[in-house]
Amino acid sequence: MKNELGITLQNRKNLLAILESTPKYDLLKIPEGFNNNIWWNIAHVVVTQQILVYKFSGVPMKVSDELVSKFMKGTTPDGTATDDEIQQIKEILVSTIESTAKDYEAGLFKGFKPYTTSAKVTLNNVQDAISFNNFHEGIHLGSIFALRKMV
User: Fold this and answer.
1) What residue ranges define each of the domains in the chain, with the CATH number in brackets?
2) Which helix (H) or strand (E) holds 116?
3) What is the pLDDT, as a whole number, of residue 136?
4) What is the pTM for the complete model shown?
């Protein structure tokens, strides 16, 4: 899992660079033909990783319920984000993965509630969740690349 989490960490560093280098207006813009924006995709991957790894393992998540309700699967962006919200995501993009690596090494993830994703992949344990999360984040990174071309 060290390699899997290393991949996630590198992706998060890439997302952080995008978040830091993209003007707020462009982060929030929803181009024609799209139903979300760069900002939503970045915040969504943070929330989804916490749900997949922590919530389904029965371990308290390291993100607020407010973030979860705003960016979980099935939500859509409202076209706004405060500077504080953007700063919060900047601060936790990398730290949540670093915490996951430490928590995994410490054996924190003992149980797991099986879950079948919308991609029809069944996750039976935390290792499955960590692996699937990389696939999920890759999908959203691709969406972000497409959105960047349109803004």
Assistant:
1) 2-150 (1.20.120.450)
2) strand 115-116
3) 98
4) 0.97
